From TrEMBL:
<keyword id="KW-0547">Nucleotide-binding</keyword>
<dbReference type="GO" id="GO:0005524">
    <property type="term" value="F:ATP binding"/>
</dbReference>
<keyword id="KW-0808">Transferase</keyword>
<feature type="domain" description="Cytidylate kinase">
    <location>
        <begin position="10"/>
        <end position="219"/>
    </location>
</feature>
<dbReference type="InterPro" id="IPR011994">
    <property type="entry name" value="Cytidylate_kinase_dom"/>
</dbReference>
<keyword id="KW-0963">Cytoplasm</keyword>
<dbReference type="GO" id="GO:0036430">
    <property type="term" value="F:CMP kinase activity"/>
</dbReference>
<dbReference type="InterPro" id="IPR027417">
    <property type="entry name" value="P-loop_NTPase"/>
</dbReference>
<dbReference type="Pfam" id="PF02224">
    <property type="entry name" value="Cytidylate_kin"/>
</dbReference>
<protein>
    <recommendedName>
        <fullName>Cytidylate kinase</fullName>
        <ecNumber>2.7.4.25</ecNumber>
    </recommendedName>
</protein>
<dbReference type="GO" id="GO:0036431">
    <property type="term" value="F:dCMP kinase activity"/>
</dbReference>
<dbReference type="GO" id="GO:0006220">
    <property type="term" value="P:pyrimidine nucleotide metabolic process"/>
</dbReference>
<dbReference type="InterPro" id="IPR003136">
    <property type="entry name" value="Cytidylate_kin"/>
</dbReference>
<feature type="binding site">
    <location>
        <begin position="14"/>
        <end position="22"/>
    </location>
    <ligand>
        <name>ATP</name>
    </ligand>
</feature>
<comment type="similarity">
    <text>Belongs to the cytidylate kinase family. Type 1 subfamily.</text>
</comment>
<dbReference type="GO" id="GO:0005737">
    <property type="term" value="C:cytoplasm"/>
</dbReference>
<keyword id="KW-0418">Kinase</keyword>
Length: 226
């Protein structure tokens, strides 16, 4: 079976804070597709590395650690690391601060791409991330690139953090997003790019519902013309 099979996939790529995950979940619900949280997968790997004190500069340690981990989801989209629910733990600050470095490791990305393809092999999925339409599912049937201004993305992320009770300033959030943009766009393995044939949606002045409607309209129109 080819790695480049045409999956029944809706891919949503874009930078941090663009609203990909929120939109992806709502699109999946509206269309009756499943949702694959690739960000949670990379955070689970990061948590495992932290718990095992893996030296991310040591290739042998990385490869050994990857061979010892198992990631799975239940029907409620909770994520399990070696059969333990880590849905909350992967949101911890220690994981958030480390995930960019871990997710940039080639061996980690190769392992996760393989797993993401295997999960989505036999069903319809909405998948969000930073390399979904460009690397993981380059022949996905529907591709979108979700973007917004840095200021709007920072505002959204800041409001999310405040609602969670986090003690953080807007300046810290916007600085973090700018650094993440720089890192994601310039990393050697699977950098953030606009995938070929992707429809670009600038959500700066759009509501979540408007973005969801635009994506589902595109999908319905394409299906009706097949």
């Amino acid at each position: 079976m080819s790695d480049l099979k045409v999956y029944e996939i809706i891919s949503l790529d874009g930078p941090s804070g663009a609203g990909k995950s929120t939109v992806a979940k709502l699109v999946a619900k509206k269309l009756g597709y499943k949702y694959l949280d690739t960000g949670a997968m990379y955070r689970a790997v990061t948590l495992f590395f932290l718990n095992k004190n893996v030296n991310i500069q040591n290739d042998n340690e990385i490869i050994s650690a990857i061979s010892d981990l198992k990631i799975s989801f239940d029907n409620n989209n909770k994520i399990y690391l070696n059969d333990v629910d880590v849905s909350e733990e992967i949101r911890s600050i220690k994981v958030v601060n480390m995930v960019s470095k871990v997710s940039s490791i080639s061996a980690v990305r190769k392992s996760m791409v393989s797993l993401q393809r295997a999960i989505a092999e036999n069903d319809n999925y909405v998948v969000d991330g930073r390399d979904i339409g460009s690397v993981v599912f380059p022949l996905a049937k529907y591709k979108f690139y979700i973007d917004a201004s840095v200021e709007i993305r920072a505002k959204r992320r800041y409001e999310e953090e405040i609602q969670k009770g986090k003690d953080i300033t807007f300046e810290e959030v916007i600085d973090s997003i700018k650094k993440r943009d720089e890192f994601d766009s310039n990393r050697e393995d699977s950098p953030l790019v606009v995938p070929k044939d992707a429809i670009i949606i600038d959500t700066t002045n759009m509501t979540i519902d408007e973005v969801v409607q635009k994506i589902t309209d595109v999908v319905f129109n394409k299906k009706s013309n097949e």
